[in-house]
Every structure is written in structure tokens, then in C-alpha cells.
Amino acid sequence: MEINLTVIIKSKSEKREELKTILLNLVENSRKEAACLQYDLHQNIENPNVFIFHEIWENKEGLDLHMKQLYFVKFSEVSDLYLDGEMTVYSTSKLG
To answer: Which residues contact 31 (CB under 8 A, 6 or more apart)?
Structure first.
């Protein structure tokens, strides 16, 4: 069963451009994963410190494997340096 995620990340203002580069690297690497069906990054127009991922994974196993990838683990280890607060993760099901 497909897993749909929306992840909202707020950057510290002074770290925004560095974080943006890191997040774009996540996009590039994640899209190469076999279970990745969609992995898009958006930046909020009104507040450029807010980034939003829209992800679709083939199944839970694929998502679990994604979270074990070295580039994802490294991001998780240093994310506190860049983030203003906690990430918000929504797991959703598509209705239409």
C-alpha cells in the first residue's frame, strides 16, 4: 500500500540557504530509490523559512529503507543545527 507523506520543516533564518541545499540533496538522492514514487520539495512564498516535502512511497518497507539511507541518517543527525522547532509529518491517504 502506498504511503503519502507531507513533511513541514521550518528553518532558522540564518541557516535557510544552507538547509535548502541539504534538502535539495535529499530530493536528488531520494528520487533514486526504487520505492520512491514521488519526492517533491516546496518553499513557502509568504515565509521562505518554511519548506514542505510531498512524498509518495511504494510501501512501508520502502519508506523504512529510505530512513536508513546514509544521506537521510546524516541529515537527521545535524538537523537541529538548521531547524527552528520540530518537523511536522503527516501521513495521509489520497481521497481524490
So the answer is: 39
